[in-house]
Design brief:
CATH superfamily of the largest domain: Zn peptidases
Strand order of the largest sheet: 3-4-6-5-7-10-8-9-11-17-16-13
Strand content: 25-35%
CATH topology of the largest domain: Aminopeptidase
Shape: globular
Structural class: alpha/beta
Largest sheet: 12 strands, mixed
Distance between the termini: 44 Å
CATH architecture of the largest domain: 3-Layer(aba) Sandwich
Number of domains: 2
Order of helices and strands: EEEEEHEHHHEEHEHEHEEEEEEE
Length: about 350
């Protein structure tokens, strides 16, 4: 059966088993079927298993259909103030927990990645550590000092426990811009293509060389030869980037991998970008120029992105697309990226 929602058959031909019905609360429901006894006549009983979602860790839930299929992980709330994916993911937890939805095959892992940050409605918890920078092997191997460091270990252990094959980590962007996908294997990696074609974003940011740094949740999956995708569903302040919209995409992802009944919608056409690197913050007091600093903004070579307090300008040396521009003061730190740089094609 697997590691979640499993049960043993404790009876067989020629043995009676008197209890009938289904378990109450969040426990699995159990039904009975007939099979011939050992002599070919009479009747025995066999249990049919219809598991419901159950917790396997803090804010981590799993449902195992007991049938072969994809082991799919959906993560939300790595950053606690990205509410649309959080609310959509928690709605799924409730629906599966109440038995309103059940799997036809495979396994489903739902991860509310940073519940403490969600409680604070902030990007991170009280430690000020970005959870999505805690999945580098060096961080995972070190003794954790902050919640996010410990939490990264717990999330990785959950993926390993259910033998997850596909992880889609749902996010929102801090700055305005269209939704987009980021993946780290080559774009012709068939399992990744199957996953990202089920998501509506029409821009795919490829990072096979791990220019993002090998620090994120989706990169952890990708470096193990599995599917790890970061899905930025849109700007955090865009009313169209709603829990209902994200919930629908999560369901479509499950249908497309065979976990749920129904026809999946596919979005195969993507505009391809490659992640080339970053422009780091090198001085205090950086300020973006007016009109600069939105996600997926195309900027020509020679354009001034902004200036430091010293008056020094930051000039783009090639035609590029801006990815994850840092405009909020708490995100602008010396030594950290001011912006990631994408190139067309």
């Amino acid at each position: 059966m697997g590691v979640c929602g499993s049960i043993r058959i404790l009876h067989g031909p020629g043995r009676s088993f008197g209890w009938r019905g289904s378990a109450r609360g969040g426990a699995p429901s159990v039904s009975f079927g007939e099979f011939p006894d050992a002599n070919g006549g009479g009747s025995g009983r066999v249990m049919g298993y219809h598991p419901r979602m159950e917790p396997i860790g803090e804010s981590i839930w799993c449902q195992d259909s007991g049938k072969p299929g994809v082991s799919l992980a959906i993560s939300f709330g790595v950053h606690g103030n990205e509410r649309a994916p959080v609310d959509a993911g928690l709605r799924l937890v409730e629906e599966f927990g109440r038995g309103e939805r059940t799997l036809r095959e495979g396994k489903l892992l739902l991860l509310h990645a940073n519940p403490r940050a969600t409680e604070r409605d902030e990007r991170w918890s009280e430690g000020g550590m970005d959870l999505n920078r805690c999945f580098h092997p060096d961080v995972l191997a070190a003794e954790p000092e902050l919640f996010e460091q410990r939490r990264a270990r717990e999330l990785v252990e959950a993926l390993e426990r259910v033998e997850a094959e596909v992880l889609v980590d749902f996010h929102c962007t801090v700055e305005p811009g269209s939704r987009f996908l980021m993946q780290h294997p080559p774009v012709d990696h068939a399992p990744s293509r199957r996953a990202y074609s089920l998501l509506q974003a029409d821009t795919l940011l490829a990072d096979p060389d791990l220019n993002f740094g090998g620090v994120s949740f989706d990169e952890w999956m990708s470096t193990r030869g599995k599917v790890g995708i970061c899905y930025e569903t849109g700007w955090i302040g865009d009313p169209a980037n709603s829990p209902e919209s994200v919930h629908g995409e999560m369901l479509n992802l499950m249908r497309g991998h065979g976990l749920l009944e129904g026809e999946a919608t596919r979005y195969p056409e993507k505009t391809l970008l490659s992640l080339a690197g970053t422009i780091p913050c090198e001085e205090e007091g950086f300020a973006w120029c007016d009109g600069m600093g939105t996600n997926l903004q195309r900027v020509a070579a020679g354009s001034v992105l902004g200036t430091y307090a010293s008056g020094r300008e930051v000039v783009l040396d090639t035609d590029a697309v801006l990815i994850f521009p840092k405009k909020k003061p708490e995100l602008v730190k010396i030594g950290s990226p001011l912006v990631y740089i994408g190139l067309s094609g």
